[in-house]
Amino acid sequence: MPEKKHPRRGSLAYAPRKRAAKQTPRVRSWPQEDEPIPLGFAGYKAGMTHVFMIDDHPGRSTEGQEINVPVTVLEVPPVRICAVRVYGKDIEGEKALSEVWADDLSSDLSRSVRLPKNYDRQAAFENTEKLVEEGRAEDIVVIFHTQPGLSSVPKRKPELLELKIGGDSVEEKWEYCQDLLGKEVKFSEVFNEGNYADVFSITKGKGFEGPVKRWGVKVQTRKVQQARRHTGVLSPWRPSRIMRTVPMSGQEGYHQRMEYNKRILKVGEDGEEVTPEGGFLRYGEVKNDYVLLKGSVPGPTKRMVFFRKPMRKKEGVPTSPPTITYIDTSSQQGG
């Protein structure tokens, strides 16, 4: 009989498991949208609670009944559009050709980027207009920054991110971005209740961990001469090298992760509606606009979470606003 082999312990899907470059997640791909609209938003994770809602998913055994659903509460203060960037084609791909920055920039933005002292906005605007008219512009995006001072996150340094704009033509995007420059954008202008979104975040950092916790390898028997919580053998004689697939110690957590199709159950403006008695643990009160997202979200509290329009849209799922009958706001402080 052939020898039985156990399945591999630990997925190589996210290898190498190294620390994220920075705490702000990076988005590498964007969906296609016909109308000019921002394709993403940013918020801060406050905590989790649960709600009672009417199950509106067709075909389920609980359809039409009241069910208990775990939700993540995220505070989403308005973001400010501070610049418009034009991309053109280059030998190696896309290349930034021009930028137009807003006039009245926030003083807190100097904590994230060095602001120019003598900036000719009119000249930058004319140069960008010329690039669009000549057809040298391949794509137009906006640069926005968050406003953590409006939330319960204890910091003033904003995150600076690039945001894709939907639309069919560059001229259409340019006209839309001119009106958007220097203004605030709210979450309700990008997403609606019942919509789906892809979320990006940096997971909790756990530091240096061994192969048992990091890869799930088996703890060896008590008669092992050396350590028990280690890999039995690193490599054979041939090839005489350690393969990349061997589970070893290293960084655990603080990785960028993405989850597809998280449903937005509720978008509100009064944070008192979802703030539990005494506030969320390690966060406090929700002071600004908020979002109830079905299920969990990667990362600890206070960490920035980026929302993106869904890349893999589901079929046969409800997209209308759900009916929420109860939101749990009982104290989370414990006895």
From TrEMBL:
Pfam families reported for this sequence: Ribosomal_L3
Span list, region Disordered: 1-34, 312-335
Keyword annotations of the record: Ribonucleoprotein, Ribosomal protein, RNA-binding, rRNA-binding
GO CC, alphabetical: cytosolic large ribosomal subunit
InterPro entries: L3_arc_euk, Ribosomal_L3_dom_3_arc_sf, Ribosomal_uL3, Ribosomal_uL3_arc, Ribosomal_uL3_CS, Transl_B-barrel_sf
Gene3D superfamilies: 3.30.1430.10, Ribosomal protein L3, domain 3, Translation factors
Function: One of the primary rRNA binding proteins, it binds directly near the 3'-end of the 23S rRNA, where it nucleates assembly of the 50S subunit.
Subunit structure of this chain's protein: Part of the 50S ribosomal subunit. Forms a cluster with proteins L14 and L24e.
Family assignment from sequence similarity: Belongs to the universal ribosomal protein uL3 family.
Record's protein name: Large ribosomal subunit protein uL3
